[in-house]
Amino acid sequence: MTEFRNNSRFALWVACALPLAAFAGSDSIDQKVAADATGEVVISNVAGTIDVRGWDRNEVQVTGTLGRGVERVDVVPSNGRTVIKVILPRGSSHDGDADIEVSVPKGSSVEVSAVSADVSSHGVLGTQRLKSVSGEVTADISGNESEVSSVSGDVTVRGDGKPISLRVKSVSGSLDLTNTAGRVDVVTVSGDARVHMGDTSEVRGRTTSGDLQVTGKLTRDGRVDVEGVSGDITLRLSAPGGLSMDIESFSGDIEGCLADKVERVSKYGPGVRLNVRTVEAGARVRAKTLSGDIDICDR
Amino acid sequence: MNIRRVNRIDQLAQNVPPARDLWPAIAAAIEVDRAGALAESAPRRTRWLPAAGMAAAVALVTLGVFIGRISTPTPDTVAGLTPVQGEASIMPAALRDANYRKQRDALLVEVNTQLKAMPAAEREKVAASLATLRRSIGEIEAALGRDPANALLQELLVSSCQEEMRALTAVRDSGSQEI
Q: Nearest CA of chain A to the CA of B112: how many Å?
């Protein structure tokens, strides 16, 4: 009798535990909805990964695995806008991982929000606004007026060489931009930033303690305006017709192939500057630091 | 030689013609005097003219300034302030500064709350960045204390304060990111 009672208890426990175990384990998603070729896709996920891919179909497809702690993924199309949201149970802290891959029409505009989730995006031609708090962001960017931002995550952006307007910001993450063109705005506090550009008309950069490196070609009337506090700035720039330069550091040094033209700001106080004025040069470079060094060369 | 003795003065000849014509010499002397008088009067006028011109210019400038002060509204007038209120025209800058500090303090409270909610490693990284910004601002302010007129330092201070607000806002908003 006792043995029967024990077996019954065990069976009851198994019966109760099985659904819980299934709930606690990972799940998967595979959902597809119709979408506009140039519609908007909004994606949010707290933790895990978000992988966005542009494709030739007028559909949005969401596939992936949902970790424990994720309740479901909502995919809601409405008036040319598709919202994809990873839902955590009410009152849950940010610990539900979901790894999702989202295929979107390549002409779509994409907006992604993540907390610790890593974000990647490839093959999307429309405007992209990618935000993460601590996750890494890696993206191919082609759309005008695109923006990538993070708080502590690193950001890697690759342009397609066509001129667009692009803003990339971080607090402590590092920024790496390659093959960008057009107008580029880069801001970081303590992360390092590296910008390698094609024919660029305007670059604005700002760093506090991180190092900033800008290399590449400016258009004939291009502008580079960079500023640092204690971070070092490296500029390797060229432009048809040459460059006019206005470089100054309060207590840092100015180095590079134009170092012989550097002069002291005052006889007794700190400060060095480099002013190069060329009549035919339409492109202008302006760089300022407090204590960071500036390494500049125009070839 | 016929010599006649003269006993009285009226016995002398009344008309004695000069041995040569004296008029050309007299006329020449008169002409020289007239030319001299003309030459003297001309420099006197040129000395007087610049002084008069300068006086007129000064008068015009004074008049212009006077008219300008009357017709151009002063900042107080533009602001619609009475002179008594106008004395407080320094206040907006101070108010702006106080407003900035107030907003920053409020932002810091929210940022600290948000930092506490972050994982330890991330919190440490972000807090270090914010501390770096604050330290940089302090360094610039210290340098400005030694060199208040330095345009580069002024520019760096403004952009660093703006950057701090941007970074604080980014950290604060990371908690309310639409998820």
A: 14
| Interchain CB distance below 8 Å, B126 and A172 | yes
Same domain membership, residue B102 and residue B42: no
**B179 contacts on A by Cβ (under 8 Å):** 44-46, 85-86, 113, 115
pLDDT digits (tens, 9 = 90+) for A85-115: 999 887 666 568 999 999 999 999 999 999 9
Q: What secondary structure does DSSP assign to chain B, as a single string?
A: -------SGGGS-S----SS--HHHHHHHHHHHHHHHHHHHHHHHHHHHHHHHHHHHHHHHHHHHHHHHHHSPPHHHHTT--HHHHGGGGHHHHHHHHHHHHHHHHHHHHHHHHHHHS-HHHHHHHHHHHHHHHHHHHHHHHHHHH-TT-HHHHHHHHHHHHHHHHHHHHHHHHHS---
Q: How far is B103 from chain A (nearest CA, A)?
A: 20
Judge whether B10 lies within some domain.
no
B92 found inside a domain: yes
**What pTM did the predictor assign?**
0.72
Q: What domain range is B29 assigned to? A: 22-72
CB A238 within 8 A of CB A218: yes
Q: Establish if A169 touches chain B: CB-CB under 8 angstroms.
A: yes
ipTM: 0.77
Which residue reads 């302010």 in tokens? B141
Q: Quick check: B130 and A171 CB within 8 A?
A: yes
